[in-house]
Specification:
There is one protein chain. The protein has 208 residues and is mostly helical. The chain has one domain. The protein has seven helices and five strands. The strands form two sheets. The chain has a three-stranded antiparallel beta sheet with strand order 1-2-3, with helices on one face. The chain binds zinc ion. Zinc ion binds next to loops.
Length: 208
């Protein structure tokens, strides 16, 4: 059973308004779930000693911005032919091929973050390659925030459109269906359609 609820919550977290009290409880819960245990202990001690939560919220904000950057990074590479290999412990692969899919696993590094090395395989077919071929591929390195292992194992095998940004409001969304989605919600789809229709009308009116 895939942990797709984690992906859903991650999308909610990156879009959460951390200044709004209604989002705070959720954001805090999600952060606690992802951060390593020692971080959690520090927060707990801080609370017991009456330390204000400003520092904690700074951490959560930072975590949110790290995740936004990580998702942007993934988004930029979608639909291209890449293989991502995770450093540390085991070797996994993540291929965006003709049949777009995530085929990957993940391994956490010592810092509780995921290190990724990505090889550009443009024009190259096949899912795995030998050491010599790896050396000739341009390398790109990336460290992911805590929780990436869960994200990647949940995305494994899903189409690349499983995560994306709304064509209307720009928010991140998770799409667990088999159909590609451009908008995060029916509301956004309607708004975009209305806008397109009025643009067409305008164009029509301007034409001689
Ligand atoms: Zn939207």
């Amino acid at each position: 059973m895939k942990d797709t609820s984690f992906v859903q919550r991650l999308m909610e977290f990156v879009e959460a308004d951390l200044d709004a009290s209604s989002s705070r409880r959720f954001a805090m819960g999600f952060y606690m779930e992802c951060v390593p245990a020692y971080d959690e202990a520090i927060i707990q001690i801080g609370r017991e000693h009456g330390v204000d939560e400003t520092e904690l919220w700074e951490k959560i904000r930072e975590f949110q911005s790290e995740w936004r950057k990580a998702l942007d990074w993934i988004e930029e590479r979608k639909g291209r032919n890449y293989q991502i290999e995770f450093l540390e412990r085991e070797v996994f692969s993540w291929t965006f091929g003709e049949k777009p899919s995530f085929t990957l696993g993940a391994a956490e590094s010592e810092e509780g973050k995921l290190d990724v090395i990505i090889y550009n395989l443009s024009g190259w077919t096949g899912k795995s390659f030998g050491a010599d071929e790896k050396a000739s591929c341009p390398k790109e390195e990336k460290t992911f925030p805590p929780g990436a292992r869960r994200l990647f194992s949940a995305l494994d095998g899903l189409p690349t459109f499983a995560i994306g940004r709304c064509g209307n409001c720009g928010q991140w969304f998770f799409n667990p269906t088999k159909r590609e989605k451009v908008y995060c919600s029916p509301v956004c789809r309607n708004r975009a359609n209305v806008r397109k229709a009025s643009q067409r009308k305008k164009k029509g009116a301007e034409a001689p």
